[in-house]
Design goal:
The complex is a heterodimer of chains A (about 450) and B (about 400). Chain A has eleven helices and 21 strands. Chain A has about 450 residues and is an alpha+beta fold. Chain B has a five-stranded parallel beta sheet, covered by helices on one side. The complex binds flavin-adenine dinucleotide (2 copies).
Chain lengths: ~450, ~400
């Protein structure tokens, strides 16, 4: 007689920011959750590189599910961030018009913001914009201000959601790519590269592979992922003083356009581009595009020309043939697809998770007194580890990362799986020297401790 | 009470510390690394010490010797201590395993050295994966850890340090597949050129890396060559040279930074725009030999000694302004009549012509030059009349 209870109530496929938020929501709701991630570390897909803006939803399509999830995600982030130790930089944004045509579109954009529930927007003349942002080019014609647009740490947020799930009983399996699955007697039997997993409900949060996971599990997908690459240039911390607000262009139908904004870590970034491609795996940078981004940055903030480039990166958006999120439940089959979370997933993740929890209609008993882990602060907003005694000395000099911080990131249920993961957790090598000073010590400390080692030339 | 704080225990900082301490000045050296010595700590093969100790030495031995001499002279050295901010009048913030604190001294010497330009700052395309290292990182991994980051990397660049990378590779059993130089000739002086040949590493001139590919590790690179685009299979990239002063402390401070050199603006005594601060060594400009930096440490120690006794003239002087795209940098940036020392200059490209320093239309100095970029050029310090700008021009 087969056991009719699966090992898990819910299997979340994919540990991007959306999967992390789903794991948290279902765990706190009382479900036994397993997260299946194919990479050696979490946040290895679309969630690896984004602009890190916590959007209000002011420019989201009216009446869309995306708008509802962004609004709710935004509200929830502010509600829980203090308890999880997640930072917020209340920078506010300015939408800026650089041509007469763009000026003409401002009133409609402001009206849309108000209709979307973002009622505190206010118009800006050139003089008003430049009074608030003295480094702004005098070629700006007009704009409006959206005070609620904020900046966050894109990684500590997702890590925090997942860690809270793990601390409350969820299980994370890495290097566990879901290859196939079949459902019998109400139980999913998933075949993964880390072995078989059983679950009552399967949630596909596979991001850039959402359509592929659909096909593997239910034979077809109702959408097609069309990866859209975004390249960025990050300037030295010295440039961060040039922009208090997030400086947004007037959005077009396909993209929010090239943004100039600070990062939570005190740098200044310019990007992203929006480039369609077929490849879901490789986000390559190219020199000409990076140079064009620098030129655009200098047009917006002329003084930027005097600052050095610290880093460059690219991310892939899991866009589809439609703008809207592709969330669909098939409860009869114990399956929910959370696909096409294109370009607002960081902001919306908590809202999406809440929405999906509602769709699932599980009759679990919510945890009454869940554990609230606290994430280490890496942002400019709070005290950093190096300011407190006992840190063991600074290891990464440019980002002032301590030996104690690195040690913490190499231990615990969410220990880093590779250098990318260690960087996201601590910021080592992400500063201006990009590893000139600290690579040797990192190679020594991480030896034998990363699933995917830092060095590749050792004898095997 | 500490009279002089020195930030950075490399050749420049330790040389100044030794000299000041020998002169009876209470000197405290701070360095963020676990050991003093600076860059030479991990240059295991290189020739150091000719100028200072009159014999060739390996980097680590040279570093230990410098530290030992500073200590023997009576200087105090605190390691694992990072300086995080510079404030007016010689007040600095530090952090160490014990926590954060503020220190003050009548004179502070900055000797924080240089680093190589990263792959990112060069805007090299491709993916971001493990296996792309500067020479500094490579040497630390090989010489300090005895680890091997890759097996068959390419080396980008032909400054002297690229040949140092080549030797490091040889020592670690790493076989570079090529040495690439975007320019038409090797940047380092002639004898270096035989090294890749002797080690069987093909040297490819006029070759630029466009993309470094491989998702988690380097798998191959795409290059632009005189014969068109090409592809090289490799498992690592060593990004060499392109030295920049490590000057974030100065940049974030109240003092002036020179965009041309990347280091602080200094006068002939190595004084910054806040006269409580001095600078020496590679922080002034990328890059000089350790011996040169050591000598700069001696020179500035003398100036600090004089400053402590109130024997330096008040700050100020004529500003040197580069008015030619052929000149990459020139220092000191503040010129004072009667001061001793040499003017240092670097070219941005190969130049054959006449170099002129003029103030208010009058020529202070004129020289024939015929030189290549990244070569050391020194001239006598011009003697200005008054404080009008001194323009540096080149007639080709
Ligand atoms: C350039 C750019 C800028 C952006 N800016 C912002 C912004 O400022 N604000 C904002 O809110 N949003 C922004 N976004 C959007 C946001 O980053 C995405 O919406 C979000 O990261 C999507 O997360 P996800 O969890 O759906 O997908 P992913 O992060 O791709 O996660 C999916 C995970 O599933 C795993 N997986 C795939 N297949 C399998 C399988 N078969 N088995 C197991 N695991 C599998 C993958 O390895 C991956 O880890 C931006 C995105 C980009 C690219
Ligand atoms: C890879 C490489 C190979 C080289 N090979 C040779 C060679 O073969 N022969 C040769 O003559 N020269 C060589 N050089 C150059 C030579 O090493 C340098 O000229 C010399 O070390 C410069 O001395 P310095 O004192 O100016 O700086 P460094 O030696 O760079 O010392 C600077 C010190 O300052 C410390 N520091 C920086 N910031 C702070 C802070 N905020 N708080 C506390 N401490 C700080 C650093 O930890 C470091 O110890 C090489 C350089 C490199 C990078």
């Amino acid at each position: 007689m087969p056991d009719l209870l699966p090992n898990y109530d819910v299997a979340v496929i994919g540990a991007g920011v959306v999967g992390c938020a789903l794991a948290r929501a279902f765990t706190l709701a009382g479900a036994r959750v397993v997260v299946l991630e194919k990479a050696v570390d979490v946040l290895d897909g679309a969630s690896k590189g984004n602009s890190a803006i916590l959007h209000t939803g002011f420019d989201a399509p009216e009446g869309s599910l995306e708008l509802a999830c962004v609004r709710e995600g935004y509200r929830m982030y502010h509600e829980i961030r203090d308890r999880l130790g997640l930072p917020v930089i209340r920078s506010g944004a300015m939408v800026l018009a650089w041509t007469e045509e763009e000026v003409a579109s401002l009133p409609a954009l402001m009206a849309q913001a108000v209709a979307n529930g973002v009622t505190d927007v206010s118009p800006l003349s050139t003089a008003e914009a430049r009074a608030l942002e003295p480094a702004l080019s005098d070629r700006v014609l007009a704009g409006f201000r959206v005070p609620g647009e904020h900046l966050i740490d894109p990684w500590s947020a997702a890590h925090g959601y997942l860690l809270q799930a793990l601390d409350n009983g969820a299980i994370l399996m890495r290097q566990a790519e879901v290859l196939a699955g079949r459902r019998s007697q109400g139980i999913w039997h998933l075949a993964t590269t880390a072995g078989a997993v059983e679950a009552g409900l399967v949630i596909n949060a596979a991001g850039l592979w959402g359509d592929e996971v659909d096909r593997r599990l239910i034979g077809e997908s109702w959408f097609e992922i069309r990866p859209r690459k975004g390249q960025f240039v990050v300037f030295d911390k010295s440039a961060a003083a040039l922009a208090g607000h997030i400086l947004l262009p007037v959005p077009t139908k396909i993209t929010k356009g090239i943004v100039v904004c600070r990062t939570a870590f005190g740098n200044l970034l310019v990007g992203p581009t929006a480039e369609e491609q077929d490849d879901r795996e490789h986000a390559t940078l190219d020199t000409a595009t990076l140079q064009a981004l620098i030129r655009r940055g200098c047009e917006i903030l002329p003084a930027l020309a005097r600052h050095e480039v610290t880093a460059t990166y690219a991310g892939l958006r899991p866009a589809t043939e439609e703008k809207e999120y592709r969330i669909r439940d098939d409860l009869a089959e114990g399956y929910i697809c959370v696909g096409g979370i294109r370009s607002t997933g960081l902001s919306a993740a908590l809202g999406i998770a809440d929405h999906v929890l509602g769709l699932a209609k599980g009759n679990w008993t919510p945890l009454t007194d869940p554990v609230w882990p606290r994430m280490p602060n890496l942002s400019t907003e709070g005290p950093r580890d190096w300011q407190a005694p006992g840190h063991g000395g600074i290891l990464c000099h440019c980002e002032l990362v301590t030996r104690r911080e690195v040690e913490a990131a190499l231990t615990g249920p969410l220990t880093a799986g590779n250098m990318g993961g260690l960087k996201r957790r601590t910021r080592v090598t992400m500063g201006r020297c990009q590893g000139f000073y600290c690579s040797a010590e990192l190679a020594r400390i991480t030896e034998g401790r990363l699933a995917q080692p830092m060095l590749g030339g050792e004898d095997d | 009470m500490t009279e002089v704080i020195i930030i950075g225990a490399g050749p420049a900082g330790l040389s100044a510390a030794m000299s000041l301490a020998r002169g009876g000045v209470r000197t405290l050296v701070l360095d963020r690394e676990p050991e003093p010595g600076g860059i030479p700590r991990h240059c295991a093969h290189s020739p150091y010490g000719f100028r200072e100790f009159h014999r060739p030495m390996f980097g680590p031995a040279y570093a230990r010797r410098l530290a030992a001499e500073a200590l023997a002279a009576g200087a105090e050295i605190r390691t694992l201590t990072t300086v995080t901010a510079l404030h007016p009048g010689g007040r600095i913030e530090i952090t160490s395993p014990e926590g954060s604190e503020t220190l003050t001294a009548p004179a502070v010497l900055l000797a924080t050295g240089v680093r190589e330009t990263s792959r990112a700052a060069r805007l090299i395309g491709g993916e971001k994966q493990a296996g792309v290292l500067n020479t500094g990182a490579l040497q630390g991994i090989v010489h300090l850890n005895h680890q091997r980051p890759f097996r068959r990397p390419v080396i980008l660049g032909t400054e002297l340090v690229a040949f140092s990378a080549l030797l490091t590779c040889r020592e670690a059993g790493i076989k570079p597949v090529a040495m690439l130089e975007p320019g038409p000739r090797i940047t380092a002086r002639a004898p270096a050129g035989w090294l890749p040949w002797a080690l069987g590493v093909p040297l490819r001139l006029k070759t630029r890396i466009t993309q470094i590919l491989g998702r988690s590790r380097v798998e191959r690179i795409l290059v632009d060559t005189p014969d068109g685009p090409d592809e090289i299979e490799t498992d690592g990239v060593i990004i060499t040279g392109g030295f920049r002063p490590d000057a974030p402390l100065v940049r974030a401070s109240h003092m002036e930074l020179d965009p041309a050199s990347g280091g602080p603006v200094v006068d002939p005594w190595g004084r910054l725009t806040d006269p409580a601060y001095f600078a020496a060594g590679n922080l002034l400009r990328g890059v000089e030999t350790a011996g040169w930096c050591w000598a700069e440490g001696q020179h500035v120690a003398g100036a600090i000694h004089a400053a402590l006794k109130g024997q330096l003239p008040p700050p100020g002087g004529a500003r040197l302004r580069i008015a030619s795209d052929a000149v990459k940098l020139a220092l000191p940036q503040v010129i004072v009549a009667g001061a001793q020392g040499r003017l240092q200059l670097r070219l941005a490209r190969p130049v054959r012509g006449r170099l002129r320093l003029a103030q208010d239309g009058a020529t202070l100095l004129e020289r024939r030059i015929d030189s290549l970029p990244e070569r050391r050029i020194t001239l006598p310090l011009p003697q200005p009349r008054g404080t009008g700008d001194i323009l540096v021009t080149v007639e080709e």
